[in-house]
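S1.2 Input.
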Amino acid sequence: MDKVSLKPINDMSVVQQVIDRLTNAMINKELRPGDKLPPEMELAAMLGVGRNSVREAIKVLTSFGVLETRRPEGTFVTNGSSDRMIEPLLYGIILDQTDSLNALKELRELIDLGILKLAIQKATKQDMELLSKRLLQLKEKLKTADVEAIFEADDNFHEAISEAAHNSLSAKIATLVRKLTSEIRLRTIRNMINLGKISEMERAHQVLFDMIKDKNSGNTGENRELVVDGYFYQYDILK
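S1.3 Output.
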């Protein structure tokens, strides 16, 4: 197995370099989904490192969901994605020492705008039926003033938009962003209920639905205003 990414590395003690070489091999399509890795001893010899370094690197990539071990067949590149691949990014953001709230808001805006654009282009009849159902459920929950129920219905509505975009990668990132902003969104909903602003929330979701249904892409500025205004961040800062 003569691969450029799997040539010997200089520092035999650095597990990260083994991880990087295996990752580069996947990026360069030298290792593809479903491919079997060489046995540990053979891979260690190819990279010029100790077997323990290879074993630890495989453990790390397995914990990320990138590799999977099938006994007794061996270790394989995962065929498809899993939620475990997103978790390292999730924990990296959670443990960030800086104030990442504004960065999260900006990330949410970028992801949602991109997903909205794709949904407008790609949404099928079945997608619209699901989105209509989720919108109706949200409207029903808004009548109850139940914060948790509204939050769940809102999450389901935006999940349906992600599905209508027909892009598995953006859907996973959108799920991650919604998870990271869950506390902000819960607090916002609670404050809007207390201020009697539920109708604004219903109207904002109806506008998004109508844009996708009518395949009205508008322009970037208009879409951004609709999406960002629909976050109701001004109500999040209230106590």
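S1.4 Remarks. The mean pLDDT is 84.
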